[in-house]
Amino acid sequence: MTERKINRGSEIRAKGKSMGRERSGVSADPSDRPSPQAGGLKAASSAEGVQDTQDGLSLSTKSAEGSPAALAERSLTLRAALFLTGRIALMLAGIAVMGLGIDIVVKADLGNSPISATPNVLSLGFTAVSFGTFMLGWRCFLVLVQIALLRREFRLVDLWQIPISVFFGVCIDAFMALLGPAAPTSYVASWLWLAGGMAVLALGIVMTVVSGTVMNCGEAVVQAVVRKTGARFGTVKVGFDLACAALACLCAFLFVGHLAGVREGTFVCAAFTGVIVNVYMGLYGKLRDAARSRRAADSGTASECCTSAETVGPFTSE
User: Fold this and answer.
1) Cβ–Cβ under 8 Å, residues 181 and 75
2) d(CA 16, CA 56)
3) pLDDT digits (tens, 9 = 90+) for 242-282
4) Residues near 182 by Cβ (< 8 Å), separated by ≥ 6?
5) Is there a contact between 104 and 193 (Cβ–Cβ < 8 Å)?
6) Packing angle, helices 114-125 and 68-108, rounded to 10
7) Which residue did the predictor score with more confidence, 55 or 187?
8) DSSP state of 162
9) Longest Cα pair distance anywhere in the chain, in angstroms?
10) Strand locations in the chain, DSSP E?
11) Mapping DSSP to helix (H, G, I), strand (E, B) and coil, where does residue 191 land?
C-alpha cells in the first residue's frame, strides 16, 4: 500500500509539472522547441525574398526607362527643345535684321519710320548719346506704357521685351558703325536707299512674327490698346504711328531747333512697310504650304512602299 501511494503521488506530481509547462508555453520535450538553425533559415529566406523583390523592381524600372514609350517621350522632349531654340534664334536674327533696316532708312536721310523717329531725333539733338541707346530707352518707355494700360493683365513673360530691346539697341549701333560714312549722293539714290531699308526692315518684322515668341514693343502697345478699347488693330496702329510722328516733330523743335528726322520718307515708311510685310507673309505662306504638301507626299509614298512590302512578303527559296 505504501509503495502504491508513493507511486501514485509521484505520478500526480509529474502530471502537474507537465500541465504547468504547457500553460506557460514551454515545451517539455527539448526536441519540440524550434531550433535556432530553423529560425536562421527562415530569416535568411525572408531577406533573400526582399533582395529579390528589390532586384525585380530595379530591373522593371530599368526596363521601363528603356521601353519604347520612354524613348519616344525623350525624343519628343528633345524635338520640342530644339524647336524652341530655333524659334528664339529666328527671333534674334529678325531683331538684328530690323536694326540693319532701320539704319539703312536713317542713312537715306528722308526721315525714319514713325516708331523709330523719336529716338533718331533725340540722337540728333544729343550727339553724345548713340541712336541705339535712345532706342533702348524708347522701347523701355513703351513697356511702361503697356504696364500702365494693362495693369494686372500685363503678363510677366512680356518683360522679355526689355532684354530684347537691349539686343536691338546694340545691333543698331553695330550696323551704324559698319555702314560708316556710306550714304546716298543724290535725291534719287536716297529713295533707293529708303526702299532697300524698308525691304530689310519688313523682312526682320516677318522673321520676328513667324518665330511666335515675343511681340515688338510697338505692336505690343497697339495690342494693349485694342484689348482695353475693343477697337480694330489697324485703326489703332495708324493712330499710334501718327502719335509717334507728332512726338518726333515736337522733340525736333525742342532739342534740335528745326524739323529734323521727320520728312516725306517717314510717311512713306508708315504707309508701305506694312504692305511689304504682307507680301513677305504671302510668300512665306506659299512656301509653308508647298513644304507641307511635299512632306505629305513623302509620307504617302513611304506608306505605300510599306504596304507593298507587306503584301509581297519576304523572299523565300523554293
Assistant:
1) no
2) 54
3) 888 889 999 999 998 888 888 888 888 888 888 888 888 88
4) 107
5) yes
6) 60
7) 187
8) H
9) 155
10) none
11) helix
Grid look-up 504617302 returns: 300
Amino acid at site 298: D
255: DSSP letter: I
DSSP SS3 for 230: coil
Identify which of 209, 224, 219 has the alpha carbon closest to the alpha carbon of residue 113.
Answer: 219
Give CA–CA dist 248/124, Å, rounded.
11
204, three cell numbers = 526682320
**281-312: pLDDT as tens digits:** 888 888 888 888 888 887 766 555 544 444 43
pLDDT band at 34; cut points 50, 70, 90: very low
Contacts 24+ apart (CB under 8 A), 292-297: none
Alpha carbon distances (Å) from 55 to 42, 50, 62, 66, 67 = 20, 9, 10, 16, 18
- 101 contacts 193 by C-beta, under 8 angstroms: no
pLDDT tens per residue, range 126-185: 989 999 999 999 999 999 999 999 988 888 888 888 999 999 999 999 999 999 888 898
Looking at residue 54, its pLDDT comes to 52
**Contact (CB, 8 A) for 272 and 198:** yes
Candidates 165, 120, 111, 112; CA nearest to 141 is: 165
Cell readout for 291 is 513644304
The answer to whether the CB of 101 falls within 8 A of the CB of 200 is yes
For residue 183 the three cell numbers come to: 550714304
- Please report where in the chains the cell 506659299 appears, as a residue: 286
Q: Rounded to two decimals, what is the model's pTM?
A: 0.67
From CA 72, how far away is CA 65, in angstroms rounded? 11
